[in-house]
């Protein structure tokens, strides 16, 4: 067979021959001629070659095989969709409900829209992979998710308003990325959220709806560009243990409502633009172990003496 005969081959014969290759090797041959390229880009061929490639694979293969990772993250939609669907079937067979991708090298690769087909899992971790681009809105259709960890990547753009659809989410971790823009009001829809970890990004505003997260125990927003006044609604978070807001652009006074968070153990407001009187109510927080207020323009009530108030856990 020579290159002159390739354009004349029946479509089914092309499918039959090339489907015995791995998807990666098959797509490398798209340049043979335009007809081959057209055939190999069809959904029908994607189904044939992917099914043959994945036939008989077990969970260890799917989790550790780099070819499978490329199939999901780097291939066009028919391939990535089939890979995701097959992964769900195999993992369900073994009752695995957690999916972790970490320490991969996915430079210049964005999370594919095919992520929407990972509907079986309640735990999704894709961290330390150099994942880039914006988060696809399809991600937020995974309503079973309880844990979403996309930390330590190079994800850009805003946090989509659709995040509010993840109503079963208990942990959202997007730390150490390059995300920006406002934290959306819809974050308040995540009523089951226990941990919200968004530190080391470039977010700009914190909505009043943050106060709707009544189960929240940890709020990590340090090292962003969040400005404006601290929302007084933070005072509704009576389960909050960790409140880390340091290295931002918050300004104005600390709302007294925040100083009444009875479960608070660690509060860090350092390196902001806060000013005014430190609420005396902080001293009534018997769980409080450390409160860092350094790098602001705050002062204590001058009418109180050190006998009246215990400042041992307060850094100014």
UniProtKB/TrEMBL annotation:
Location of this chain's protein in the cell: Cell membrane
Lineage: Eukaryota, Fungi, Fungi incertae sedis, Chytridiomycota, Chytridiomycota incertae sedis
One annotated Gene Ontology cellular component of this protein: plasma membrane
One Pfam family matching this protein: LRR_14
Species name: Rhizoclosmatium globosum
Entries under InterPro entries matching the protein: F-box-like_dom_sf, F-box_dom, Leu-rich_rpt, Leu-rich_rpt_typical-subtyp, LRR_dom_sf, LRR_R13L4/SHOC2-like, RLP_Defense
SMART domains cross-referenced by the UniProt entry: FBOX, LRR_TYP
Primary location class: membrane
Keywords of this entry: Cell membrane, Leucine-rich repeat, Membrane, Repeat, Signal
Protein name: L domain-like protein
Domain F-box as annotated: residue spans: 3-48
């Amino acid at each position: 067979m020579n290159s002159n005969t390739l354009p004349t081959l029946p479509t089914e014969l092309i499918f039959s021959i090339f489907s015995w290759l791995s998807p990666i090797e098959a797509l490398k041959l798209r340049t043979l001629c335009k007809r081959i390229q057209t055939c190999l880009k069809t959904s029908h061929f994607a189904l044939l070659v992917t099914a043959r490639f994945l036939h008989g694979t077990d969970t260890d293969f799917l989790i550790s095989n780099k070819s499978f990772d490329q199939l999901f993250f780097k291939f066009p939609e028919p391939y990535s969709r089939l890979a995701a669907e097959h992964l769900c079937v195999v993992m369900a067979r073994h009752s695995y409900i957690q999916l972790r991708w970490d320490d991969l090298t996915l430079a210049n690769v964005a999370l594919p829209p095919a992520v929407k087909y990972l509907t079986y899992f309640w735990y999704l971790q894709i961290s330390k992979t150099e994942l880039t681009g914006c988060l696809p809105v399809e991600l937020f259709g995974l309503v079973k998710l309880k844990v979403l960890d996309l930390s330590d990547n190079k994800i850009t753009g805003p946090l989509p308003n659709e995040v509010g659809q993840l109503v079963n989410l208990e942990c959202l971790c997007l730390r150490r990325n390059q995300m920006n823009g406002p934290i959306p009001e819809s974050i308040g829809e995540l009523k089951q959220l226990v941990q919200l970890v968004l530190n080391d990004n470039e977010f700009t505003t914190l909505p009043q709806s943050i106060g709707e997260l009544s189960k929240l125990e940890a709020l990590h927003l340090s090292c962003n560009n969040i400005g404006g006044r601290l929302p007084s609604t933070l005072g509704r978070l009576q389960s909050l243990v960790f409140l880390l807001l340091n290295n931002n652009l918050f300004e104005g006074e600390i709302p007294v409502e925040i100083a009444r968070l009875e479960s608070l153990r660690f509060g860090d407001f350092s390196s902001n633009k806060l000013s005014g009187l430190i609420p005396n109510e902080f001293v009534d927080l018997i769980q409080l172990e450390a409160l860092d207020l350094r790098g602001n323009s705050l002062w204590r009530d001058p009418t109180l003496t050190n006998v009246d108030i215990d400042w041992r856990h307060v850094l100014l």
